[in-house]
Specification:
Blueprint lengths: L1 E10 L3 H17 L3 E8 L3 H7 L5 H9 L2 E6 L14 H12 L3 E7 L12 H4 L3 E7 L11 E2 L4 E2 L6 H16 L4 E6 L5 H14 L6 E6 H10 L6 E4 L1 H12 L9 E5 L5 E4 L16 H14 L3 H16 L2 E2 L10 E2 L2 H12 L4
Parallel strand pairs: 1-2, 1-3, 3-12, 5-10, 8-9, 8-10, 13-14
Antiparallel strand pairs: 4-5, 4-11, 6-7, 11-12
Helix pairs in contact: 1-10, 1-12, 6-7, 8-9, 10-11, 11-12
Bound molecules: 3-isopropylmalic acid and magnesium ion.
Length: 357
């Protein structure tokens, strides 16, 4: 029996609620499989700060490094917003990404036919959208130095080395080869030097992938094109901050930010998390949508552990519950035959994956 060690970071807000459901589903899918999952919990974010004084205790980094994969919920909340920057929950996540070398962030956006009405865009615009935002995650303006906040002047530095661009570009082209063979690289090369290097470097990498059609788009135009005609995109290759912004925008194409998973990879251990945040406004009410986290758990099985069959089972179960009209509150207005709580949704999917129905 294979045993996989999963580092679990529940985090703040709805984090614990949605992670519990993902674990319920993982345990269910493992019942009839030839592997076992072991979990070790670690602290990160606001709760970690409250308990240890540090949003990313060393123990968490060490535990993550030892694991086969990391499953993460969400972090953040108003009560920690006034802390010095390096104590804030977000700093914990950024430091973990850097410490583990997670430079490639996969943010797939898929539209479920059953939820087409949930999108604020017209059904014909969103039906069939299937795109991947490939976001660089450990460089750019998020990490660039120098950076400083003065009284009357503050600055950050957007910096990319050629090496950093090459490795994320390769990731995008490799992904495109398994998809529809299109890469659209996003930059602001008409204004920024760093974007010019980005564009030139992506062009160079493209030479190794003659089957992939490469286009370039300025980020402002990309923001517009995403709502005008999202189906034109296959893989969108972006730097750190452009990907942060565009992936939030792209998530709304699917109707709910509560549906989309993500994977951060590139180092020895990958981190899997929903793309939404900790939603303090609905914490503890049992109404959070666990589907994005359950879907992230499926990505973890597929990419980190190679358990493709188990991942397929979870994906099929998610489609099935949506077809059958089970909805958490966030998407209840769209085709619900039954509105369910966070835990009910987890249980229904767990039931399906271990074939009780
Ligand atoms: C994300 C989030 C993070 C980011 C925050 C929480 C630091 O918005 O994962 O998209 O900006 O990368
Ligand atoms: Mg973001």
């Amino acid at each position: 029996m294979k045993v996989y060690n999963i580092a679990v970071i529940k985090g703040d807000g709805i984090g614990p609620e949605i992670i519990d459901e993902a674990i319920k589903v993982l345990d269910a899918v493992a019942v009839n499989a030839d592997f076992e999952l072991k979990y070790d919990e670690y602290l990160m974010g606001g709760n970690a700060y409250d308990i240890t004084g540090d949003p990313l205790p060393q123990e968490t980094i060490d535990g993550c490094e030892r694991a086969d994969a990391i499953l993460f919920g969400a972090i953040g909340g108003e009560q920690w917003d006034k802390l010095p920057r390096d104590k804030r929950p977000e700093s914990g996540l950024l430091k973990l990404r850097a410490a583990l070398g997670l430079y490639a962030n996969y943010r797939p956006v898929k539209v479920y036919d059953e939820l087409i009405e949930a999108s604020t865009l017209k059904p014909e615009v969103v039906q069939g959208v299937d795109l991947l935002v490939m976001r660089e995650l450990t460089g750019g303006i998020y990490f660039g130095k120098p950076r400083e906040k003065g009284e009357d002047r503050a600055y950050n530095t957007m910096i990319y080395t050629k090496e950093e661009i090459v490795r994320i570009a390769k990731e995008a082209f490799e992904s495109a080869m398994k998809r529809r063979k299109k890469v659209c690289s996003i930059d602001k090369a008409n204004v920024l030097e760093v974007s010019q290097l980005w564009r030139d470097t992506v062009e160079e990498v493209a030479k190794d992938y003659p089957e992939v059609a490469l286009t370039h788009m300025y980020v402002d135009n990309a923001a517009m094109q995403l709502v005008r005609d999202p189906k034109q995109f296959d893989v969108m290759l972006t730097g750190n901050i452009f990907g942060d912004i565009l992936s939030d925008e792209a998530s709304m194409i699917s109707g709910s930010i509560g549906l989309l998973p993500s994977a951060s990879v590139g180092g020895k251990v990958g981190l899997y998390e929903p793309i939404h945040g900790s939603a303090p406004d609905i914490t503890g009410q049992g109404i959070a949508n666990p589907l994005a986290t359950i879907s992230s758990a499926s990505m973890m099985l597929r990419f980190a552990l190679g358990e493709v069959e188990a991942a397929d089972k979870i994906d099929t179960a998610i489609e099935k519950v949506l077809k059958e009209g089970y909805r958490t509150k966030d998407i209840a207005a769209f085709g619900a035959s039954e509105v369910c709580s966070t835990t009910e949704m987890g249980s229904i999917i767990a039931d399906i994956v271990c074939s009780h129905r």
